[in-house]
Amino acid sequence: MTENSAIGSVKSGVKSSGNNGAVTDLIETLSDSEVAEIEAECAHLPDRQSAAIDALMIVQKHRGWVSDQSLFAIARLLGMSAEALDAVATFYNRIYRRPVGRHVVMLCDSVSCYVMGADRLAEQVKAHLGVQFGETTPDDRFTLLPIPCLGACDHAPTMLVGEELIVDVQADRLDEIFAPFE
Amino acid sequence: MNSPMEKPLTERIEQNDGRVVDIDAYEGAGGYVAAREAVTAMTPEAVIELVKDANLRGRGGAGFPTGVKWGFIPQGDAAGPGPKYLICNADEMEPGTFKDRYLMTFDPHLLIEGMIIAAYAIGAERAFVFLRGEYFEPYRALERAIADARDRHYLGEGVFGGKFNLDLRLHSSAGRYICGEETALLNALEGKRAQPRLKPPFPPASGAWGRPTVVNNVETLCNVPAIVRLGADWFRGLGLTDDAGTKIYGVSGRVNNPGLWELPMGTTIREIIETHAGGMRDGYTLRGLLPGGASTDFLVPEEHLDLPMDYGSISAAGSRMGTGTMILMDDSICPVDISRNLQHFFAQESCGFCTPCREGLPWLEELLADIEAGRGTMEDIDTLETNAAFIGAPGNTFCLHAAGAIEPLQSALKYFREDFEAHVREGRCPYRKNEGNG
């Protein structure tokens, strides 16, 4: 489903870049530091396209997500088609092709957390944040996503908030858990 | 180090009071002695023979003999022009598995030292740690450790002042379970969609960028330094059964003390659960367990508690030791619903390349959801069984993702069939006494 919508958005991207004319302008939409970081990855790889995932992650690190415009610019920089790059982008969990909130909350839904009540916790987190999986809070603070096993199963249930792993999550302490994330 | 080391993987962490073992602490405890010895005083062939002799088998789940895998790598001119690669598979994402996170976070130099020795043995001057993207703590620990090792010339140009060079890089995955499949991992490393490759050729013949490549799990590589330092006989002697060494076993679920323990290979399931994990919590009874992650067949307490956790014994019982980190299902958990949870994972993580996996797994998930919701028929149970056998049959798909998905399902149908039938008879889930009881 994600793939279908992403393909749709690429088509609209083709159109707008066509209207804007020169393709070199596209690369200029990337910042100097983004280009420098991507080039650094390319430098140690056998070919530029091998840096596709790294490049997407670099741009996402700077902008929070990968827009159509960014996708086209990266594709141009790496010498590949935007379609091929989007096939890569939409394959991976951690590459966002839509804007996300300032903090992405990833709630583990795999078996160890399931055994320790993750399904019920998921309902409580959704109610607490007022969003369903895949949605962002109206203040752009949190995006809620499910994630497979976070590898802290002896402290299930678990979740990630941004880069912070939260273990032994208790539903009655969600206020406290989310408070440090502005 | 004269002490007879019993926990080559975790001893240093314990001696360091559970704090991260930095480069000074690591070297203070005999670290990098083995790698220096291997690189400066042993031939690559001798290292490979030693690891073969030690009978080290892959700790990522498949159990392939590590030295044999290394021996497949062409040496010298036979390798052709261009680099060879060593890849550490650190994409820990098998549900219920949390051992590699521990090793990398607390003793990152152990992995680096294991990689130096492995890379030297196969003649690889390029190496990557392919790390689970969500593993932020291990990332920071490894990033620091790699920089420290490079500063002391244990990595980079002229490792230990010799002629061997090793460029070791940390690659953070963009995230998909299938990246743990070694040829899918190689495609991901090459910046592509992580679809498994047709095999043969296997990676030692044609791996990363078409070059000879070895892919080894974190725990596997972490065993290598002690083998070089203390020898093959010592390593084989650690195991209680035919399999050598120690194993990091783990338990999650409703036990008193969930966690990880490095124990002799072949420790029984009963000892792991009852002695180390402290037994089941009050009020809960063990119904079944997945011995080594989500993609292993259920075992049951009536038949299997006294089995040694090793490759052969668990296979003989119809399951797999897998990653050795077991997930316990207690009597409050519905076997149908846990099966639905497992198939949800596998359906979602299918790369989508092969039809039986892409179409079949979501369909199994849906059937299970129907049965769980009380909408199932007895025929649905038969359909599950028939199609599980078809989807899981080797040769119907490129890789073993679908086969792994079927392992917990076919065994749930075998051991908990009565629960499936009760759902149909009663038209509801007998376990769902309270709303939201997951």
Can you walk me through this structure?
The complex is a heterodimer of chains A (182) and B (438). Chain A is of the alpha+beta class and 182 residues long. Chain A folds into 2 domains: 2-89, no CATH class; 103-178, Glutaredoxin. In chain A, 49% of the residues lie in helices and 10% in strands. Chain A is built from 9 helices and 4 strands, in the order H-H-H-H-H-H-E-H-H-E-E-E-H. Chain A has a 4-stranded mixed sheet, covered by helices on one side. In chain A, helix 3 (32-43) packs antiparallel against helix 4 (52-63). Chain A is elongated, with a radius of gyration of 19 Å. The two termini of chain A are 31 Å apart. Residues 1-20 of chain A have low confidence and may be disordered. With 438 residues, chain B is of the alpha/beta class. Chain B folds into 3 domains: 11-238, NADH-ubiquinone oxidoreductase 51kDa subunit (Rossmann fold, 3-Layer(aba) Sandwich); 246-330, Ubiquitin-like (UB roll), CATH 3.10.20; 335-426, de novo design (two linked rop proteins). In chain B, strands 3-2-1-4 form a 4-stranded parallel sheet, with helices on both faces. Chain B has a 4-stranded mixed sheet with strand order 6-5-8-7, with helices on one face. At the A-B interface, helix 4, helix 7 and helix 8 of A face strand 3, strand 5, strand 8 and helix 15 of B.
Instruction: Provide mean pLDDT of chain A, rounded.
Output: 89
CATH topology of the largest domain in chain B: Rossmann fold
| Model regions low in confidence, pLDDT < 50 over at least 5 residues of chain A | 1-20
The biggest sheet of chain A amounts to: 4 strands, mixed
Q: Give the tally of β-strands of chain A.
A: 4
Strand order of the largest sheet of chain A: 2-1-3-4
Order of helices and strands of chain A: HHHHHHEHHEEEH
What share of the residues of chain A lie within helices? 40-55%
Strand order in space, largest sheet of chain B: 3-2-1-4
Radius of gyration of chain B, in Å, reads: 22 Å
Q: Gap between N and C termini of chain B, in Å? A: 49 Å
Globally, the shape of chain B reads globular
- How many structural domains of chain A? 2
Strand content of chain B: 5-15%
- Please report which band the strand proportion of chain A falls in: under 5%, 5-15%, 15-25%, 25-35%, 35-45% or over 45%: 5-15%
Mean pLDDT of chain B: 95
The number of helical segments of chain B is 19
Q: How is the main sheet of chain B built?
A: 4 strands, parallel
Protein structure class of chain B:
alpha/beta
